[in-house]
Write a structure and sequence with these properties.
Length: about 350
């Protein structure tokens, strides 16, 4: 683990509550039972295809939260899909899929939408042939690539964008947070979100105008900003909160999300598995340090993005938290509490 002169090399404060903002334990259902013995307090479980949704629901029914204070919760749940075009012999009409997703979300008030997004690198894998299907690993949830060769066929960005926007509009209608996937498409993700919030931007006042309106007190200004983002009651055409999961864009690219006119609460989560190339026990790259320092404290989340629950997921979560605490110069307890508060704000909004 990463050491620190800021007291971050001491015992890890699991008792304060560590929240995994994005993971995939239902990819291997035989590992799901390990959730109950994990040190992490809460897992935000993602679906990535139609086959996942029922498995996420099943997992949430067994290990998910039912009620009570977030500090007392054992685990969390989440439902949605990404990239349904994966060479299925009988593809499901998107309208049917979206209707099914709506039903699942309405039945599970603690569920959020995820993961959804855009991926320029995605190519459709070859279809299963009988001999290959007969030898596949039956412990894996169907729908993944599982070593199949990739075809030259792609899902065009414009089509992906339309699918994403329809799912974001569903989240907006139901007032749910969204976990967003973006690979080689950070500009297009921003563009998709911008098209939804256009015309609903927050009013951004100059220092002179704030003073004129009596908003030169920082506490009053903060309350004004919160009120501006929440706006009037009723659903908007954009989701209330999004998380850019395992954000892989540049620090300069992320700065576009810092515009105070944006009416969406934006978070960015980071994982060792994606952002650091599995670089456990290695020095943190300077580019990653720059990225973490660019993201405001209140926007930061951590995740494992792993498909195996258990000790390895806990180990990855501890590693990424320690790294972030070192970069931000937080003590471990301070950092864990901050990140936990951010997770609750992302999933449920401000208390």
């Amino acid at each position: 683990m990463v050491s620190s002169s800021n007291g971050n090399d001491g015992p890890f404060p699991w008792h304060l509550g560590v929240y995994d903002a994005h993971c995939h334990p239902t990819d291997i259902m035989s590992n799901v039972s390990k959730i109950q013995n994990m040190k992490a307090r809460c897992l935000t479980v993602m679906a990535t295809r139609g086959e996942d949704q029922d498995l996420v629901i099943k997992t949430a029914a067994q290990y998910g939260i039912k009620s009570g204070s977030p500090d007392d919760w054992p685990r969390e749940e989440c439902i949605e899909d990404l990239r349904i075009f994966n060479a299925l012999p009988d593809p499901t009409p998107f309208s049917v899929f979206l209707s099914q997703t709506r039903k699942h979300l309405e039945e599970h008030p603690y569920a959020l939408l995820g993961e959804v997004g855009l991926d320029r690198s995605f190519r459709i894998p070859e279809a299963w042939v009988p001999d290959l299907w007969a030898t596949r690993n039956s412990t894996l949830t169907p729908g993944g690539r599982e070593g199949r060769r990739l075809t030259p066929f792609r899902c065009q960005p414009a089509h992906q964008k339309e699918i994403l926007k329809r799912q974001l509009q569903l989240a907006a209608e139901l007032g749910r947070a969204v976990s967003v996937h973006g690979v080689q498409a950070h500009g297009l993700v921003y563009e998709s979100l911008h098209e939804l919030w256009k015309g609903y931007e927050n009013e951004v006042l100059s220092k002179r105008e704030k003073k004129k309106r009596g908003k030169d007190d920082p506490s009053v200004e903060a309350e004004y900003d919160k009120s501006a983002k929440e706006g009037s009651s009723g659903p908007k055409p954009y989701p209330p909160r999004i998380c850019l999961h395992s954000y892989s864009g540049s620090a300069s690219n992320f700065k576009q999300y810092l515009n105070p006119a944006i009416p969406i609460y934006v978070f960015a989560s980071f994982s060792t598995a994606i952002n650091l190339g599995d670089a456990l026990d290695e020095e943190t790259p300077a580019e990653f340090e720059e990225m973490i320092n660019t993201v405001p404290d209140e926007m930061l989340l951590v995740e494992s993005d792993l498909h195996t629950a258990g000790d390895e997921m806990d180990r990855r979560l501890e590693d990424i938290v320690r790294r972030i605490c070192k970069i931000k110069q937080w003590g471990l307890e301070e950092g864990v509490e901050r990140l936990g508060k951010n997770w609750k704000a992302f999933v449920f909004g401000d208390p």
